[in-house]
Amino acid sequence: MTSTRLEITRPxxxxxxxxxxxxxxxxVGHTAERxxxxxxxxxxxxxxxxxxxxxxxxxxxxxCLPAGSAFQPxxxxxxxxxxxxxxxxxxxxxDSVFAVKYYPAGATTNSQSGVRELxxxxxxxxxxxxxxxxxxxxxxVTDPAVDIFDREQIFIERHLLPLxxxxxxxxxxxxxITTKHAxxxxxxxxxxxxxTITAHHLLLNRNALFEGGxxxxxxxxxxxxxxxxxQALLEAATSGDPHFFLGTDSAPHARETKETSCGCAGLxxxxxxxxxxxxxxxxxxxxxRLEAFASFHGPDFYRLPRNQDRIMLERTPWTVPATxxxxxxxxxxxxxxxxxxxxLVR
Length: 346
Ligand code: NCD
Ligand code: ZN
Prior knowledge:
This protein has helices at residues 21-34, 51-64, 85-93, 122-131, 151-166, 180-187, 199-203, 227-237, 255-258, 275-283, 290-302, and strands at residues 5-9, 13-16, 37-40, 72-78, 97-102, 135-137, 172-174, 193-197, 244-246, 310-314, 318-319, 324-326, 329-331, 339-340, 343-344. By secondary structure, it is of the alpha/beta class.
C-alpha cells in the first residue's frame, strides 16, 4: 500500500530567525531544503538596522547555503527610535530589504533596541506608508501590569487600532498571532493588513508548557494560549482567507539557554517547517487549503511572484532527533524524540 502524498507549490516562510555565524550555518539548511524564500528577522546583536547591515547579513546567509541551493533570504530592518526616514527610501530602492520589524522594547529575544514610544517613529512610519514597505509587528505590550496571556489583545486595543487609524495605508503584518482577538482583528481588516501564524501555535495550547512539569522548550513569545485560541488560529489558517499566511518563527536557542532558571523564548521548528503545518491542516480535514496558506497568500501580500517549482510531502512518520547541532552546542527541536506525521519527499 502506498502512503498518501501531497504535492504543493514550494512554500515560503514569512517569519524566520536564522541567527548569525556558526549558528546560522547550523540551521539554514533546514529552511533552504523546504522553502524558496524567507523573511529573515533582524534581531541580531547588534540589530540589523540599516540597508548596508541587511545586505552584509544577506551575503553571510548566502555564503552558508548548501551548494546548489536557490534559497532567497528576504531581509528586514530592525526599527529603532533612531531609524531615519531616509533609510526607508534606501530600503525601498534596494532589491534586498522587504519589510521593517517593530519590536516593543523588552518584549522578546534581543528587543532591547526596540521602540519604547510609537510616537517617536511616526516620521518613519509615514515614509513606510508612502513607499508601501510593510511593517511587521511583534504585537505584545510590555507593560508588566498586563497579564502575559493578555498582552496581544491589549496591544491591539492600545496600539494597533490607533496606529491603523493614523496610518490607514500602512501595510502591516501582525506576526505570529496567538489569539482569537488577533484573528478577529485581521479578518475584518482591509487587504493592507495581514498576519502570520506559526505551526507551534496551531499544534499546541498552553497546557504544553506544563505537561508533567515545566517544559522550557515549549516556551516562546508570544506565549502559547488556551485551546479556544488555538482553535481560532486553526480556523483562520485553514479558512482560505488571504489575510493569513505561513511564518514559522523558528527561533533556535542553545539547549543550556532554555534549560535554566531564566530560559530564552523560542521554538525551533525549521527541521519540519512545512511538515508540522501539514499535520495541523490534516487535523481539521483541510489539507486542500495548505497550498494557499503556505505558498500563495504570502507572495501575494508582499507583491512578489508565486514560486514555480513544487514540493512533495508524504504521510510517512519519521522521528525527530533528540537534538540538532547548534554552533558548538545543541538545540532541542520541536517534537524531539517523537514522530512527525508527514515527511518531505522532495
Ligand atoms: C524569537 C527569538 O528567539 O528571536 N523568540 C520567540 O520566542 N519567538 C523572537 C520573537 O520572534 O519574538
Ligand atoms: Zn520571531
